[in-house]
Specification:
single chain, Alpha-Beta Plaits, 4-stranded antiparallel sheet, 2 helices, 4 strands, EFG_III/V, Elongation factor EFG domain-containing protein
Length: about 90
């Protein structure tokens, strides 16, 4: 089974790097690049589309309103972990 993914970029303050990347990882993000330094960090990668809206809602709290998020569809990838629906319905 496959599911849609979005490519993302998040421009965040340095103090938010750990909480933002931890939350993205928990949602199944695959990181491509993290660059930055003293004033801001740019985190990029892909995230399952089913988690994009959830993360967008979390970003203001994780960055104290200073984060900027952009994403766009980037194709489908195999479903990982327990995200695959079960065959045959409930028993």
């Amino acid at each position: 089974m496959y599911e849609p993914y979005h490519a993302f970029e998040a421009d965040i303050p340095p103090a938010a790097l750990a909480p933002v990347t931890a939350r993205l990882a928990a949602l199944g993000a695959e990181f491509a690049e993290t660059t930055g330094g003293r004033h801001s960090w740019l985190v990029s990668g892909v995230l399952p589309a089913r988690h994009v809206q959830e993360f967008q809602g979390l970003l203001p709290g994780l960055t104290h309103g200073e984060g900027v998020w952009t994403s766009a569809p980037s194709g489908d990838r195999p479903v990982r972990g327990n995200a695959a629906p079960r065959q045959g319905g409930p028993r």
